[in-house]
Amino acid sequence: MQHIQSTPLWRRSATAAAAAAAVVVVAAVAPAVAGAAFNFNDDLRDFAPAAAGPFDHARAKLTMVGGAGTKAVFVVHGVDPAVAGQTFGAHLHLGPCVAGNGAAALGHYNHSTTPRVVNDQTEIWLDITVNGGGNAQSSARVDWTPDAGMRSVVIHAKPTAADGTAGDRLACLPVEW
Ligand SMILES: [Cu+2]
């Protein structure tokens, strides 16, 4: 009798995060990031390099694990502790992350078609609340997978409102798969 150990090698070679989600990965029906785990770890790009901001010296990491949907984990370090306790909107955006150019990130990556629906299940929302050490973490889970491309996680000045708005764009993390 066949045992379930027949997981393909490329799936086994994914990161520990993916291994933890192995059951989900095996059940996947060919999503765009099937079985894959992506880790992006980089300095945040500043949208207003001339002005001082709480994310000027911050680094961020986005982990995305594909399976029967997508689990995204966003971790930020090195935020100015002066903003401890504040919540900042953060989302996966459609366009690339370019320093000094908030508009380049385009709008939110939105999975819905017509009518367009904006909420935390049609988009990947990763709002963060900064702690006293200048760190923050959030996660999101949706039942779809974003298409490949050059994209960005944009951090905004305010928490995400019900309509998806979150104020000015402060910084971004480049992600591409
Ligand atoms: Cu956004």
Automatic annotation (TrEMBL):
It comes from the Bacteria. Residues 1-36 form the signal peptide. Keywords: Signal. This is Copper/zinc superoxide dismutase (SODC). One of its GO terms (biological process) is superoxide metabolic process. GO terms for molecular function: metal ion binding. InterPro entries: SOD-like_Cu/Zn_dom_sf, TAT_signal. Belongs to the Cu-Zn superoxide dismutase family.
